[in-house]
Amino acid sequence: MSNHTWNSNDNTLNSHRDSAYDPWLENQINQELLHADAPLALDLGCGLGLGSARLRRLGFQVISTDFSSQALLKAKRLGNIEAAFVADAESLARKLSGRRFHLILANLSLRYIPSDRLQVTLIALLNALKEKGQLIARFNHRGDIAANEPQPEFSEVDGILKTFYTIDDLLRICNPVLSELKDCRPDENWFYQIKESDSLGLGGGQRVLTLDWRCQR
After folding, report:
1. What span, in angstroms and rounded, lies between the C-alpha atoms of 167 and 209?
2. Closest Cα partner for 86 from 67, 105, 59?
3. Residue 22 has what pLDDT?
4. The dihedral of CA 176, 180, 182, 188: what is its sign?
5. Is 44 within 8 Å of 50 (Cβ atoms)?
6. Dihedral sign for Cα atoms in the order 109, 115, 120, 123
7. Rounded to whole angstroms, how far apart are CA atoms 199 and 216?
8. What's the pLDDT at 19?
9. How far apart are CA 185 and CA 171, in angstroms?
10. Coil, helix or strand for 8?
11. Higher pLDDT residue, 41 or 153?
């Protein structure tokens, strides 16, 4: 994926979602995290950094990542991010260096991972959560794909291949993740939920799925 492709698409996306982004994020966050001592958040695929900026206003220290160095430079110029490094979701685990986060935000960034690799990526991200940590991820709903799309789980727009899901799709991926966590880390209480909603902040009445993972130790 080229940096030029990112710029032409992400600028359009964020120009529509600015007004509706903050309420979604603030309502989704586990309020206990806001009272943690120096809560640390990871914004995965931060784009222009709107989510990072909102998390900072809520009191989080934020590390922002994106696959595009141009995205990070623009987000810094806008004043939306501070600490940042270039990484995509699949290579991120190698760059975390043992860091642990109270919150990981993946707002429409995991959609670029093919569904057969999402399970491994989720496990890596969940292993980077602190006690009572939370992973919040949003995905595009498969119902938004055009009826004549040859591959119903994918849609290519301006050279970007995105993965679309239904609730059942995510359940098939997340249930084995939950079983593995319970087997490998039996002293921890992991759970997740999936919500479907419309998102006017994404440029119209598009349907999205919010995946909310939490760990209670």
Report:
1. 7
2. 67
3. 53
4. negative
5. no
6. positive
7. 29
8. 44
9. 20
10. helix
11. 41
**DSSP secondary structure code for residue 34 in this structure:** G
- What are the distances in angstroms from CA 186 to CA 156, 168, 182? 40, 26, 5
Is the separation of the CB atoms in 212 and 182 below 8 Å? no
How far apart are the C-alpha atoms of 73 and 185, rounded to whole Å?
A: 39
- Please check whether residue 49 is in contact with residue 30, taking contact to mean a CB–CB distance below 8 angstroms: no
| DSSP sequence for 96-133 | STT--EEEEEEES-GGGS-HHHHHHHHHHHHTTEEEEE
**Alpha-carbon span 198 to 140, nearest angstrom:** 10
Find where tokens 């909310």 sit.
Answer: 212
The predicted-structure confidence for 127-151, as pLDDT tens digits, reads as follows 899 888 999 999 988 876 644 444 4
Whole-Å CA distances, 18 to 14, 94, 102 = 6, 31, 24
Token pair of 184 as six digits: 């490998």
